[in-house]
Structure formats: C-alpha cells, structure tokens
Amino acid sequence: MRNPRINKETTCCFSGYRPSKLPWKEDETDVRCIALKIKLYDILEALYEAGIRHFICGMATGSDMYFCEEALKLRDDREGVTVEAAIPCEEQAAKWDEKTRNRYFRLVSECDFESMISRQYTSDCMLKRNMYMVDNSSVLVAVFDGKLGGTMHTVNYAKKQGLEIIEIAP
After folding, report:
1. Would 18 be classed as within a structural domain?
2. CA 75 to chain centre
3. Which pLDDT tens digit goes with each residue over 67-100?
4. 115-134 per-residue burial string, b: 16 or more CB within 10 A, e: under 16
5. What is the pLDDT confidence band of residue 46, given thresholds at 50, 70 and 90?
6. pTM summary value
7. CA dist 21 to 17, 54, 161, Å?
8. What's the CATH code of the domain at 145?
9. 2 within domain boundaries
10. Looking at the domain assignment, is residue 138 inside a domain?
11. Total count of domains within the chain
C-alpha cells in the first residue's frame, strides 16, 4: 500500500529482531547491543549523506526501538529528517510490561508521523505493516542473520521489490 505523501526514493525502513532473538536478550548495557546502536546511527548518517530523509520504523520491541531512537537522534543532528511510526494495530503494546509500553508511547509521540495499519489486531497486521514499510521505501536496514520469522519475510519481500538492503548481524 503506497502512501502518496512519502517520497519512496528518499525513504528508509527498518526490520529487526525482538529481544528473544538477540544474543543479549533485554540487556541493553551489553557491549554488543551498544555496538549495534552505534552501527545503526552510523548507517543512518551514511544514508542521510546519500539523500535519505524519511525513516519508517515498525515499533516492535528490541531492534525496532533501537532504530527509532537512533533515527530520532539523527533528526536532532541533521536538517530535514522525519521519522514515522508504522503501527500494525492499536493494541500493539497492550501486553508489554509497563517500562516497555512507556518507552513505546514516548517514541511514538516523538515521531513526526504515525501510520496505523489496522485498528484491530488481525493475524496478518504485522505482515501488512512490514509490507507497508517496504512499499514506501527504497532502502531496508535489517538486523538479520538468517533466522526464520518476520524479519526474514521482510528482507525477502524487500529483495523482490528491488530495495537496497543493508543487513547487520546482531
């Protein structure tokens, strides 16, 4: 589903693992997590230098939130950057713990745009969210090392759509 207000050529989206698939799980003080966040920022900065100005994030726990935070930092550091929260359904964060929910709502509120894919949870709302992000982007950044799941599907879909793909092993 194309969003006519987005210039696909200057847009990057993101897909990556939730904490359960990351080697450090929830421990963001782990040196590998810190290194990933630095690498994400460096990639976003390089994309900015290449003309990317709009960044879409799916707002899941783990890698998505890291990406969103780094994109918001880039927006603070560079002119013309916008960040979009692509939300699969209204109750995306309903079952998360309070700390994670608070982080989610803070990040969503700091984004420039919010796209709600489905009001209600459906069995395919996450898939539709991922397709929305890819369909509106020219670049996909993915924290991915081959594990089965939503990130793999998103990477494969992005390949079929001809996006430039930047993969980062966690």
Report:
1. yes
2. 15
3. 999 999 999 999 999 999 999 999 999 999 999 9
4. bebbeeeeeebbbbbbbbbb
5. very high
6. 0.96
7. 6, 27, 26
8. 3.40.50.450
9. no
10. yes
11. 1
